[in-house]
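hey all, quick one before standup. I had two proteins in the batch that finished overnight and I want to keep them in one place so we stop losing track of which output belongs to which input. First protein below, input sequence then structure tokens straight from the run.
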Amino acid sequence: MKKKALVLPAVVGLGIVGYLASPLSGPHELTSNPSEPQQRMTESVQSVSPHKEFTIFFDKGMNDSLLHENGIYVLDDRNHAIPVTIQKQDPYTITVLPPKNGYEFGHTYHLYIHRDLDLENVNNTNLPNEYHVPFHVNEQM
């Protein structure tokens, strides 16, 4: 299983989620979505396996008070909450584990990460409230 690291906050000086070791080609900058002014989202949707684990690294540490209070969550394409497990690996790293039976093939999901989870960006109103990372489950992964 391939792993990606999402790095918060310092990518292009904006505190944006970035990707390391991505199987997608091209840049993975986050851009504003005009219909969702309080979020930033990726330019493209990642293709992932049904048992994808997301690893998120915070270079200045994380706000533990938001870790289990909707600081990180996953929704399906109908805005239903997906039961993922959030594991704190160390003071700087979180892993988002997939649902027990994995994500469903052919479906698109949305990972949301609250800005204030990153200690470097707590209450930084120049940034969106959440980062949005859409991903699609590909059965060939």
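OK second protein, same deal, sequence then tokens:
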Amino acid sequence: MKIKQQRRWKRRTAAEQHQIACRVTGWVLWMLLLAGGAGFVAASAAGKYRMPSGSSSSAFAPLQKRADQSAAETLPGHGLFLQAYTAGTLATGGNRVQDVCLTQERLLEMPETLDTAELSKTATLFNDFYQAYEVPMFLGAVPAAGEFYAADLLGSAPFSSQLSELDTFYDEVSSPIRKIDIYQILSTAKDDYIYHRTDAQWTGYGAYCVYRSAIRKMGFIPVSYDQYAVSHVGTYRGSLYRACYDGRVTPDILDRYTCSSGSSVTSVTAYAADGTEEERQMYDHPSEEDPSAYVLGEPCEKIVVQTDVDNQRKLLLLGDADAAYLVPFLMQHYREICFLNVDCASHGAEELADLSGYHQILVLCDADAYGDAALWEKLLHISSSSEKGAQND
């Protein structure tokens, strides 16, 4: 007569059961990786997907990166593959997937290494541009969210800070150009919701904090925060989430800021690079891919916002996606805001606007943009007639 043996699983110690469970989980993850990875590799070979890389000299790099990501998301099993890969990374003590650093509370984009020589060239271009037009200029670099939250990183992988390079860049920009130290401004508010948790851009409140400080430098009294009605219009998961599918992080919130006692927008006109015009409205463009598009619509080369402010002051805003968040606050002080998006620029500022007709110029981009001197060389190109005009003055 056979003696019934105990099931082997019950004879295992707790530690052995844990090891077996980990191995089974690993087999499942590998099966998912192989299933999703086949399409992933095929798309890479076909040129439909590229892993995020380091610095780029192309002004269209941010748009290209979004296009690459959108193409990858159409692949069968893409989300499942990244979700499994991220789970495996976390299970083995890792804290980074592609260019995304993983934390319990948020996802952080690993910033590019800034080339000090490129930053120096960019500073010189701004100095020459100011000398040519002598329009009051204000300049600020938006730091990566990791500058404030790198301590939350899981594991021991280092976070590459850009602050020292930015300090050197600010020093090389001539003193007539007023600098806005955004890192110092946001440091006092880092416990608030100033950066999106699943996207690399700041939030409306982060933009307000910078507006409140910058507008004083620009000669105005800021509208107090309690004058704005803030409406939560929805939630979304941004580009950093779609790069790793880490579902632990809370989705972000889209906010709408309305100042009932302030000025109103009378028109929003978007101009594509081919000259095509499109009439838009503020806060009428929900976008799951680019939260800044919710404010002014999909990125394009030039957007002109007209308001009913009772003055004739005009502002030229040179910036990227982060700058779009400032428009709902800046519109309380200017009759016209001309926003030139550096991510979409294919013409020089001279070609896009009558620069002498603006009372002030505000330049606001993420730190990486200032490390691309070729972008600014095209955008800030000074014609020979402008140089002669400046000399005659």
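Flagging for whoever picks this up: Residues 1-15, 20-28, 38-61, 388-393 have pLDDT under 50 and may be disordered. The first strand starts at residue 96 and ends at 97.
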